[in-house]
Amino acid sequence: MRTLSASGTGTLTDRYVAEVVRRIPAGRRGDVAEELSATIADTVEARDPDDPATAEREVLTEMGDPIRLAAGYADRPLTLIGPELYPAYVRLLTVLLITVLPVLTAVSAVLDVLDGRGVASVIGGAAGTVLSAGAQMIAWLTVAFALVERSGRRPGAPGGAWTPDDLPEPRAPRRRGAAAYAGTAWHALLISLIVWQHTAQPYRTDEGVRLDVLDPGLWSGWIWPVLAGLAGLVALDVVRAVRAPTRSLALWNIAAEAAFTLPLAWILYRREFFGPAFLADFNGGWHTPDSFYTVVVLVVLVAGARGVMRRLAQVRA
What we know:
Blueprint: H1 12-21, H2 26-47, H3 52-63, H4 66-73, H5 86-114, H6 119-151, H7 176-199, E1 203-204, E2 210-211, H8 223-242, H9 247-269, H10 276-283, H11 290-316
Antiparallel strand pairs: 1-2
């Protein structure tokens, strides 16, 4: 009997099986992949052994959207929105949440900054936008699909009925090592700069006085969790260079990212990042506007959140 494997070679069957198994619990993926590949191979063999390519497309078309098939394997009931509409619902909701919602949140945050509101108010407003706008998107889209479900119509996925042509192209192997090495170099550079500016005091006034760029008072408090978080990120970057992403690795990364990002954001919020003597000499009497610190705090928090989301996405992929 001819067999079709889900080895990632790029055939329609490989891609179909991959789309199914990545949506079910990890513990069942191997058995389901083997079972599904064997079923497809047997059906194709019985359908038309002389033209396996055409038979393969016909069999996959009859099996339908892999999202719906995966829901059956995972024993997830799709009751409010039936299996005919659920794939289109998931895809459209995903588009709304990863494109429209971030734009709305960013616009709201920028407007709050321009209005001169403080960082706490800006963060609170952005969080409120995410919760309120996100909830309304989910609620109204769910209501719309539920009404269509109960109307008896089945429009199918956007663009028409599902066919094997809708399968995504095989993903290129992730260049995990290069990204991890770059992360290691970046975080190590930050540690070096923080320590160097304190020990070498590279900034000189016109009178020749050497100054720390960062507030020297940080060395008796908040700089240590920042350095600890950076050191943790360096260690985790090294581990990521030689190991595949895991859930425990992602949790450690969240802890390290929080140890670095949250104290740094607090330091910036309290305007304690730069040394007072350095600012007085460098600015020459010009006062740094509060909106500058507000924007920087938001950038730091968003960058930290993006780092966490990337690690979680690597585990789910």
